[in-house]
Specification:
Elements lengths: L12 H16 L6 E4 L5 H4 L7 E4 L17 E6 L5 E5 L11 H13 L4 E10 L8 E10 L20 H10 L4 E7 L8 H9 L4 E3 L3 H9 L3 E11 L10 H25 L1
Parallel strand pairs: 1-4, 1-5, 5-9, 6-7, 7-8
Antiparallel strand pairs: 2-3, 3-4, 5-8, 6-9
Helix pairs in contact: 1-3, 3-6, 4-7
Bound molecules: 8-iodo-guanine (8IG).
The site of 8-iodo-guanine has 14 residues, from β5, β8 and β9.
């Protein structure tokens, strides 16, 4: 099946997710996975602390998935066995809404994780920070979100309660593991352009703390599938107009590297206790 078939109205996206999960089960030899992890910008080195994958699958081998579109992202998924026998399905990349492949493609990894047996998904991303005190390299727990994409992964009269999109128990667990962890509201813009300073001011006024181009649609699809959701952002830059000095890309890269250890330990310790 071609990756764009998933957007055909006659295709059932859950059936494609079932087919994808079957390929993952076959290639890993594991009938089910327990936790899924989506790696956003800057999170790959952190995820390496989770454990060693015993299987790596090219996205292009799995129904409904496409190759990575963002430089620095890996177009593969990996299966990491944990000491207690559980398995983590680690997605090295995601499909963004701005790629124009449709919302079904954006949430296909989430639905595949659900079909593979995962009851929890950890969504990570790199984003812009609205609070000046959050320096590049600061991980922030997502407490809630504002979806400014004007779309939804749900089709038809599918009413899903979003009171606790980001599972309170998992947020408590993360803060227990790292009491200094900040929390904030993530605002998803469509992108792929970054915001103007006026849009960033708007995001603050409406209650946002972080701006990015992913995560909210995936979180909604995960809730629809009945999964628990944990969202963690890595602030890689101050959002436009927040810092008086223009962004120094080298500084951002350095900050990401410096954060890898903290973020990786956090991820590993959270996954251990989920
Ligand atoms: I990395 O400042 C990263 N992704 N929308 N704004 C938006 N997305 C981002 C940003 C940012 N930084």
């Amino acid at each position: 099946m071609r990756a764009d078939d998933i957007d055909d109205p006659s295709t059932d996206p859950r059936q494609v997710a079932q087919a994808a999960a079957a390929v993952i089960a076959e290639r890993t030899g594991a009938p089910r996975h327990d936790i899924a992890l989506v790696l956003g910008s800057g999170w790959k080195p952190a995820a390496d602390l989770l454990g060693t994958a015993d299987t790596e699958i090219d996205n292009t081998d799995v129904p409904g998935f496409a190759a990575a579109a963002v430089e620095g992202h890996t177009g593969t998924m990996r299966s990491v066995p944990l000491a207690d026998g559980r398995r983590v399905l680690v997605y090295g990349t995601r499909t963004h809404y701005y790629e124009g492949r449709g919302v079904r493609s954006v949430v296909h990894a989430v639905r595949t994780a659900a079909a593979a047996g995962c009851s929890t998904i950890v969504l990570t991303n790199g984003c812009g920070g609205l609070r000046p005190e959050w320096e590049p390299g600061t991980p922030v727990l997502i407490s809630d979100h504002i979806n400014l994409t004007a779309t939804s992964p749900l089709e038809g009269a599918t009413f899903v309660d979003l009171t606790d999109v980001y599972t309170p128990r998992l947020r408590d667990l993360a803060r227990e593991i790292d009491p200094s962890l900040e929390e904030g509201v993530y605002v998803q813009f469509r992108g792929p352009h970054y915001e103007t300073p006026a849009e960033v001011r708007m995001a603050r006024v409406i209650g946002g703390d972080l701006v990015g181009m992913s995560t909210t649609l995936e979180a909604i699809a995960a809730r629809e599938a009945g999964m628990d959701v944990l969202g963690i952002s890595l602030v890689t830059n101050p959002a436009a107009g927040i810092s008086p000095t223009p962004l120094d890309h080298q500084e951002v890269i350095e900050a990401g590297r410096a954060a890898a250890q903290r973020c990786g330990e956090l991820l590993a310790r959270i996954v251990e206790r989920i």
